[in-house]
Write the structure tokens for this entry.
Amino acid sequence: MMKKCFKATYIGLILFLLYAPILLLAVYSFNSADIIGTWGEFSFRHYITLFTDEAILEMIGNTLLLAFSAAILSTVLGTAGALGIYYSKRRVKTALNGVSQIPIINAEIVTALALAITFVVVGIEKSFFTLLIGHMVICAPFVVLSIMPKLKQMDNSLYEAALDLGASPAKALFKVVLPQIIPGVISGFMLAITLSLDDYIVTSYCKPSTFNTISTYVYNATTKGNAHTAVTLSSFWALTTIIFVVIVATVVAANLIGKKKEER
Amino acid sequence: MKRLRFSRKTLGIPYAVFLLFFVVIPMLVIVFYAFTDQENHFSVMNFAKFFSDPTKLSTIVYSLVIALITTVCCLVIAYPVALILARSKMKKKSVILMLFVTPMWINFVLRVNAIRELLNWIGLLGEANYFNTILGMVYDFLPFMILPLYNTLVKIDNSLYEASADLGGNAFTTFTRVTLPLSMPGIMSGITMVFLPSMTNYVVSDMLGNSKITIIGKFIETYFGSDWHMGSMIALILLIVVFTSTMLTGGFQSEENVRGANL
């Protein structure tokens, strides 16, 4: 019993420490003051700033636009890539698999530096396009990685059967192969979104100077400091709180859906 | 039959071309810059300069020490968490595991900013740069350690523990002779997943260390502005170190160890 108590306390303590900074911001996001530790009065001021400041709204929009376009393109490219790798001859398979692992294992700064130098050498101006490429380089290999196990588990004879029954190769691919690997495709897509939303280093190397995402904006505001820093910094508390609530809601919803599926 | 095989394989061509242009060629560009001088002549000077400059070497050593302390702290904190959860008979343990992963989905920079605000509130920001940096890294990379550890520990068959007890092993010997050796793959994979970012992810050290701490990642970043040849050489050395250590530790065991894959 003692032991059990101790275990629960340990888990509880680590969880508390993990959530403490976020909860602190969540509490103070409803405060009128701009500094943590001084309590003014209850207020939605920081939320209002968040939703009215044009620069902040723009960077949030940029982040979402970038994440969704990078994730969708990476998923399409990665799914096709995984299928192609899976059906290739052994040598091609090993080579492609190996190269595909590079961005996963590599330090992000090395990937970022290599891409940025290459863009300059080739003479490509930094734009949304280069940024998108940068994000696809970090996302697509993870999509391939999450689809590969599903392809290996797949029953190959089903595809052959579909062909024997008169389906065209393309139809068999969409109607027989794709449904079997769809869980991998979905988790690859989710992974791509989180990777893209989270990224700072590749973004900072591939973005045009006027373009900001949440990561680069917050980083610049805290390390370099700009004119209306105090207002901006405290609206990040509101932003963190909103993102946290959205994530918790998503996790709870995913769990509920999962449970319903199990019950069926 | 021949035409049909062809059509399936061709699906991989766009991805192969993409990898060639944006992964292989950039790596070759790095290698080219690392081994040339300002006039683009072949040179090993960058390599020689790197290993003969004491300030460069001491930066690397500092960075390695920070990464090492971070990794050890993560391992010491995460192992009991993973073990308790893996051995618990609770029905809801997947929910608790989820709680450890959830903060990872908040934007990385915002998460670091949250610790920054906390440290500022306590009064440590700008006062204890090394402590803050390591604290921030442990905080941010802890889930990378918990997940692979949990995944290997949960697969250990309960009968092995019983067998150890039957054969007279006490809790301590069971741990050192059964649990620890069997969780080695998870430990190695956790170490690679924490050590690498704590050597290279300079967001934490910049935001919490008051921009006073230079880790290897930041080091490369500073050369990006001034000397691509030296920057590329450091990047190349880092690349080789990372790939050798990944090969030695058996790489990323499976996709389930990768961040966020537990959604």
User: Anything to note?
Assistant: Chain B has one domain: 52-261. DSSP finds 13 helices and no strands in chain B.
